[in-house]
Model the fold of this input.
Amino acid sequence: MIVQACINGARPREFHPRLPLTAQTMASDAAACVAAGAAELHIHPRSIDGRESLAAVNATVLAVRQACPGTLVGVSTGAWIEDDVERTRTAIGGWRELPDYASVNLSEVDAPGVMELLRNRGVGIEAGLATLADAERFVGLADHGRVLRILIEIDIRDLPAALDEAHGIAAVLERAGVRRPILLHGVDATVWPFVELAHRKRWSTRVGLEDGKTLADGRTARDNAEIVAAAVAIFRPVPAG
Done:
């Protein structure tokens, strides 16, 4: 069970004043998150104009590694980043500073191809499952056991519906005999209920400005580190006395 920090995602600059968008601000923010208890980092590298970019992975991963030696660093491969299958594959094939793992969304057409490319490059895979259809597609892959972990990542704002989808995905994995670690996370209003659920289930979780900017009591967090510290407190409560 770990708490992963997702420090920026696809959020726009105006989402939060402390949203890190350059390699150096991501590196310093990541170091603060690790100091707050994050075991791993999930980042969306940005180009000089602030847009998400797979070509920016080299400089960003290097900067984050220098700031956080020994901490696993992951990136997104979301199809929207390059918005073209061949550009996505070319960018991944050109990485020189390899991340430890990369997230692949099973809802995307080229997900199996991206997964195979990552394996060939020695990059671990987080298989992102947002729907029951994603889960069924994933367990239907011949090599579904060859992933680092599974992300149950629900982008449904209504909490009861989000919980139903998460439990349904877990049931698909269970029926298929999948025995890979699970990381559960929500978005905005479902972030903290899902942190609590992950803790009860003994799954991992992630928090940070990619997923939401508020603390469990609804206050806007000062920064990613404050969000991480709050999640770590749930996962590792201080013993009484």
About this structure: The chain has one domain: 3-235.
